[in-house]
Amino acid sequence: MASVIAVDAMGSDRSPKPEIEGSIQAARQYGIRVLLVGPQETLRSELSKYSAAASLPIEIVPASEVITMEDKAVQAVRAKRDSTMRVGLRMVRDGRADGFLTAGNTGAAMATAKMVLGALPGVDRPALAAAFPTALGTAACLLDVGANVDCKAHNLEQFAVMGETYSRSMFGTARPRVGLLSIGEEDTKGNELTREAFQLLKLLPLNFVGNVEGRDLYNGQVDVIVADGFVGNVALKISEGVANLVRTTLKETLKATITRQVGYLLSRSAFADFKKRLDHTEYGGAPLLGVKGVCFITHGSSNANAIKNAIRVAAEFAERHINDRIEEGLAKIRAAVVSV
Predict the structure, then answer these.
(1) pLDDT in tens, 197-236
(2) Ramachandran angles phi, psi of 143, nearest 5°
(3) Count of alpha carbons within 13 Å of 26, Cβ hemisphere only?
(4) Most Cβ neighbours (<10 Å): which of 96, 180, 200, 213?
(5) Which of the 8 DSSP states describes residue 289?
(6) Per-residue pLDDT, 308
(7) 269: number of Cβ within 10 Å
(8) 302 CB neighbour count, 10 Å cutoff
């Protein structure tokens, strides 16, 4: 049976166009049933512009309120009880949808998910995990990338377990190498948080490879990188900025002269492959690991391709029962600690 994903149709900067186009692509290519959550008349009017939508498994679920990027997360969650986020996440909680996706206010999405879905046993703080490409053609996972600005060592310990399970289950990595993001590889390097977390992570029954530096994020030598949400978010945003710079600069350089333009035309296919490999929209959104349900959050600037892939990855997450595996992994850790 095809997965059912509820999509916040009013989350992105240019909503609802990217959400509707991405949903149409996901329904057509993957057979995923999509529930578009938002103001009924607005969505019906936009959806009517696409003749293909009539024959696809796409439905509209009414929600009268929208949490904007300007809203303060906690206040909006409490005040807007019929928001697209709250309605969509309630559908996950009640079993009417297998997962939820939003490109809206990240803080509000996390707060709503924690309130509506609740946390898995053994999780103090859910974490956002971002996937990105490596030089070896593999996918690596960085968490947390923004859910928790301030963390304690035991939070990073839980992130490691959740990230390792996610990497193994989603990317098929047999024995994910887990690293702790720091300012040096030596055990004693880092701040008080990383030094304390290092001692906890090395006791876990995981393939912990020790401290890793920022340059190790993309070299393929580590599969899961653990950090607090402040450091992880900065690392992610810098990486995205560099990727955009490389793509733009390379394209401009290749078109600077007639000779280079000819070379560009001859290598256009290779350039397209290069651009796609660095394109974050190919990797879907970031799952909020540690909640009782599937919740994915993606960029407010997401285009239709990003929405399509985020829906696809959310469906795969649900189909592979990754939350069950995370819960099992955390239970084993708790049991091991008690036995000691």
Answers:
(1) 999 999 999 999 999 999 898 899 999 999 999 999 999 8
(2) -150, 140
(3) 34
(4) 180
(5) E
(6) 95
(7) 8
(8) 26
